[in-house]
Amino acid sequence: MKKGINRRDFLKLFGVSAAGMTLIDGVSATPAFAAENLPSFELGPFKLQKTKETSSGCPYCGCGCSTIVYSDENDKVIFIEGDPDSPINEGTLCPKGAALSDVYNIIDKNRKRVPNPGRLTEVLYRAPGSSKWEVKDWDWAIPEIAKRIKKTRDEHFEAKDANGVTVNRCLALCQMGSANINNEEDYLVNKLMRGALGVVDLDHCARL
Ligand code: SF4
Prior knowledge:
Elements: H1 7-28, E1 52-57, E2 66-71, E3 77-82, H2 95-98, E4 105-107, E5 113-115, E6 123-125, E7 134-136, H3 138-156, E8 157-160, E9 166-170, E10 175-176, H4 183-197, E11 202-203
Parallel strand pairs: 10-11
Antiparallel strand pairs: 1-2, 2-3, 4-5, 6-7, 8-9
Bound molecules: iron/sulfur cluster.
The site of iron/sulfur cluster (SF4) has 11 residues, from helix 2.
């Protein structure tokens, strides 16, 4: 027992505490606090109700975490979360990945979510020697990319090196891959790059 408190003081103190607890207990049981007297409220519509779910991946680092992207009827992204079915991240995202929807939307100075004006949504092309970017469409860009890859490959393909050793390589091209593609897609990338084009410089963000 604390020095300075005798047995009589202790019993008095205990009696006051017990009375206080009884009072508190009594108050909590009064009808004013019963469940039926609490103010009722309606739940608003669930934020992700009626949204479209699209499976995707976090583009930031080499971990390759999977995500679910929720979009509304106008295909506007409204929320992104980790995919619980992913064996890599099992529904979790790091803080960077958790802020992924900021790629699409930002908070403006009026505290409203608005489309991110810095997000590229069109093909931009800068011709050799030019200082200007031109907007192009994919129907122009994809054949153009293919044409230039083929030209570079044909001009720089080496069947044998200087010692006569068969190399079948093209050192003028390289390939930057992704941590977000699966084994089958990786197989196709390698088939195209190594098999068809002779590319030997391949890398991706996880350096695998
Ligand atoms: S959520 Fe984080 S750990 Fe996962 S891929 Fe994105 S940046 Fe990397």
